[in-house]
Amino acid sequence: MKIFRWLFLISAIALVVSCRSQQQQSAAPAGPVPVGTVREVMRGIVDPSADVLFNAVSTTISAAGVEDRQPRTDEEWELVQRGALTLVEAANLLVLPRRVAHPEEENTSAAPEELTPAEIQKKIDANREAWVKHVLQLQSVATQALKTTQARDPQALFDVGEHIEKACESCHMEFWYPDDVRPF
Ligand code: HEC
C-alpha cells in the first residue's frame, strides 16, 4: 500500500516537473526577437552613430581663424570609438529580418519619390541577397572607421567618412528612393 502511495506521489511530481519545463520551453523565444523596425534602427542607431563619426573631424575657416576640430582627449576618442562600434554592430541588426515600419506606417513616406515601407518590404523580400550585400558593405566601412579610432588617426577617420556616406547612399538608392538621385 505504502509503495503505491509513493509511486503515485513520484509520478505526480514527475508530471508537474515535465509540465513546468514544457511551459518554460514554450515561453523562451526560439531565437533573437527583432523589436525595432528598419526605420527605427536607422533613426535611433545607424544615423546617430554615423553622425558621431561625420562630426568628429572638421576644419572651419572663419574670420576668427582656422579651427581644427578632432578628438584629442581619451574621453573624446572613446566617444568616437563607441560610435564606430555601434555602427559596426548596427549592421548585424539590419541582417536580422525585421519589419521596415510599423503596420500603421505602411503607407507613410516623407517625400513622393520615396517608396512606402510596404514597397520597400517587397523589394527586400524579393532580393534579400542585395540587401545583405549593402549591409555588409556598411559593416566593412564602419569597421575601417573603428580601426582609425583605435589608431587615433584623425585624417584616416575623416577620409573613411566619405566611404560610409557612399555605403548609406547606395542602399538608399536601391531600396528607399530608386526613382530619385539626391543625398540622403
Ligand atoms: C541595407 C540598406 C541600408 C543601409 C546600408 C542604410 N540605410 Fe538608411 N534606410 C534604409 C531604408 C530601407 C530606409 C527607409 C525606411 C523607411 O521607410 O522609413 C532608410 C531610412 C533612413 C533614414 C530615415 C529614417 C526616418 O526617420 O524615417 C535615415 C536618417 C537613414 N536611413 C540614415 C542612414 C545612414 C546615415 C546610413 C549609413 C551610415 C544608412 N541609413 C544606411 C536602408 C539602409
Describe the structure.
The protein is mainly α. The protein has a single domain (36-175), classed as Four Helix Bundle (Hemerythrin (Met), subunit A), CATH 1.20.120. It has six helices and two strands, in the order H-H-E-E-H-H-H-H. The chain has helices at 2-27, 38-54, 74-95, 117-126, 128-150, 154-175; strands at 58-62, 65-69. It has a two-stranded antiparallel ribbon with strand order 1-2. The model has no long low-confidence stretch (mean pLDDT 89). Heme C is lined by residues 38-39, 42-43, 46-47, 50, 94, 100-101, 117, 120, 131, 134-135, 138, 164, 167-168, 171-172, 175-176, 184.
User: Rg to the nearest angstrom?
Assistant: 25 Å
Shape: flat
| Overall average residue pLDDT | 89
Spatial arrangement of strands, main beta sheet: 1-2
How would you sum up the major sheet? 2 strands, antiparallel
- H/E topology pattern: HHEEHHHH
What would a concise description of this structure say?
Helices cover 65% and strands 5% of the residues. The chain is mainly alpha-helical and 184 residues long.
Summarize this structure as a short list of keywords or feature phrases.
Four Helix Bundle (Hemerythrin (Met), subunit A); single chain; flat; binds heme C; two-stranded antiparallel ribbon; mainly alpha
